[in-house]
Amino acid sequence: MGSSKGDNIILVGPMGVGKTTVGRLVSGLLGREFIDTDFLIEEMTGLSIARIFSERSEAYFRSLEREVVENIKGMTNLVIAAGGGMIIPEDNYRVLHASGVLICLMASVDVIAERLKESNGRPLLHNGDKREVIKSHLESRMKAYDKIEHCIDTDSLQPESIAQNIVRIFRSRIADV
Ligand code: S3P
Q1: Atom 1 in ligand 1: which residue has the minimum CA distance?
Q2: CA-to-CA distance for 164 and 152, rounded, in angstroms?
C-alpha cells in the first residue's frame, strides 16, 4: 500500500454505527488483529469509559485518545474501531489518515437512537435527551466525518454485508497501488 501510507483499516464515525461489531467481522475475514480504541483505553486505565468521564473528565479521556493515536503510528496490519470523537481533532485525523485506509460508517439519527436505546456505557448520551444529543453530535461533527474518503450508509445493511463492503474497498485500494 505505498511506502508512505500505513496499511491499517480504521473504522470511524459516530456512536452506534457498528464500528466494533463490523470491525471484528472484518478482522475475521482478513485474518488480522482487531483493536477497539475504547477497549484499549479501558485496559490502559483499568477504568470503564463511563468512570473515566465521571471520575476524571472528558478532557482526560481525550488526552488518552491522543496517546492511543500516537501509538497507532507505529502499528500495521490492524483493523481498528475508533471511538466516535477520535478523528475530530485535526492532529488525530492526520495521524490516522496516514496510518491506513479510513472508512466512515454512518447512520441516520433515528437508526442510531434505536441502536443505542439500551446503551448505558456512553457518557455523552447522558447529557440530555438521547435523540437530541445524537442529532447535535452528528451536526457538529459532520464536517470532520465528511472528509473521509470512503463512507458506508449502514441504515439498511447488516453487519456482515458492511464488512464485505469494507473488504472490497480495502482490496480495491491495494490493487490501485
Ligand atoms: C464517544 C464515542 C464512544 C467513546 C466515548 C466518546 C464520542 O465510542 O469513545 O463515549 O465522543 O463520540 P463509540 O463511538 O465506540 O461509541
Answers
A1: 84
A2: 11
SS3 category, 18: coil
Residue with the smallest CA separation from ligand 1 atom 3 is 83
| DSSP of 82-123 | PPTTTT-SHHHHHHHHHTEEEEEEE--HHHHHHHTTT--S-G
Mean pLDDT of 35-42: 98
pLDDT digits (tens, 9 = 90+) for 146-157: 999 999 999 999
The answer to the question of residue 125 being in a domain is yes
173 alpha carbon to ligand 1 midpoint, in Å? 27
**Ligand 1 residue neighbourhood (C-beta within 6 Å):** 15, 19, 38, 49, 83-85, 122-124
Render pLDDT for 70-106 as a digit per residue (tens, 0 to 9). Answer: 999 989 999 999 999 999 999 999 999 999 999 999 9
The pLDDT confidence band at residue 5, using thresholds 50, 70 and 90, is confident
In a domain, 93, yes or no: yes
List 29's β-bridge partners, or say none. Answer: none
Give percent of the chain with pLDDT exceeding 90.
89
Residue 153 lies in a domain: yes
Which atom from ligand 1 is nearest to the alpha carbon of 125?
10
| CATH number, residue 51 | 3.40.50.300
